[in-house]
Amino acid sequence: MAAHVRDIFFDLDHTLWDFEKNSALAFETIFEQLEIEADLEAFLKFYVPINHEYWEKYRKDEITHEELRFGRFRKAFHLLGFEISDELVMRVSSEYIQCLPLNNHLFEGTIEVLDYLKAKYNLHIITNGFHDVQSRKLENAGIGHYFATVTNSEKAGVKKPNPLIFEHALSLAKTKKEQSLMIGDCIDADVRGALNCGIDAILFCPDPEVSYEGIKQISNLSELKKYL
Fold first, then answer.
1. What are the b/e assignments for 95-120, b being 16+ CB within 10 Å?
2. Domain 19-102 classification at class level
3. What CATH fold (topology level) applies to the domain 7-17+106-226?
4. Is the pLDDT confidence value at 2 over 80?
């Protein structure tokens, strides 16, 4: 693989940036600031799968940006059985967007592997996340300087796995499919999306029990060294 690869494209959330850990820390701060007396651990048990569900709908253009930002919180509080006004839900949503990028936990081996790859390849980001939030995550986590380009769905006008976002990223990076590689945590959006566009891909899945036939896969970022 290393012989033909010149440009490596990473997803950000759940791949380099530890979304669940940083998200939980953001909620801890918000619940305290807004004096929300809901049980945080119980809330997260509802919110985490609901957030995945809403992002999946957003990725498929089944809901709008605004519906994503409000609906996931409204549904989580509802299933928790916690009474909360729509006004306060909106405040939670607004504070969450501001607070989330303030935390900067990365997956184990992120800096080590970025240092290793940066010396040999051009590195890039392709994300379905919102431009303002993702930019602050990269800056606050201290990893923005590793990446030559950052492609997000807002600027591209489409979301992964739409091939047009990959084409946009290739154009921005001034590179070709055959010399590129995509690394991400989502089998559909990142891996199959890239493969269907003609770009080689590796799935990052911390759970070694999960596997997909015919898919190159790692459970720790340091394992990229055996491919690259």
1. bbeebbbebbebbebbeebbebbeee
2. mainly alpha
3. Rossmann fold (3.40.50)
4. no
